[in-house]
Specification:
It is built from nine helices and no strands. It is mainly α.
Amino acid sequence: MSIQLGSNQEPPKQERSAETRRQLLDAAADELLDGGFARFTTHGVARRAGISRGAQQHHFPHKHRLVTAAVHHLAERSLQQLEGITSDGSLNSTRRVLDALFEQYAGPLFAAMLDLSLAARADEQLRDAVQREEHTVNRMIDEWAHRRLTGCDDAPADFDELFAMAISTVRGVAVLRLLGHSQESVQRQWKYTRDQLLRLLVENRS
């Protein structure tokens, strides 16, 4: 006699594995944001995800691999938030892109990366992994911004050089917030800096 499977049929093994990995990465990202690298443990990640230690070790046998994968996962979550922002080369839309970049570089993702970079100074294995992931994350964010800011026909001939300078400037001001400078002073500095960048990227096209 054949047995008909209902709608509660268990998902395929590959699908369950992918879901377990996603749960671990979500939990690892949140663990990193909440406690920093100093308090980050694979046991804590497994507990937060509601997954057995065996399943956690199957997907991520080493702490360093889990940490760097969590940073990459955070970057992908950040990019999903950014994708809704577009630019047509106008002043207002370019301002939105610059503001979004500033919030990214002053936000939890790069706070976690700064924390990891400091922790990795005395750990060669972690340092190499963090540096690779930092380059990857920065490239992802930069490529997003470059696509948004070159969506018009009258981009300056030296746009790539201006863009590189703008990114470095945004990061520099954002670090002030990560270092604990007052919200008010950082915001004043950012508004002034953003206006200067807008003049270079948009206003001098007319």
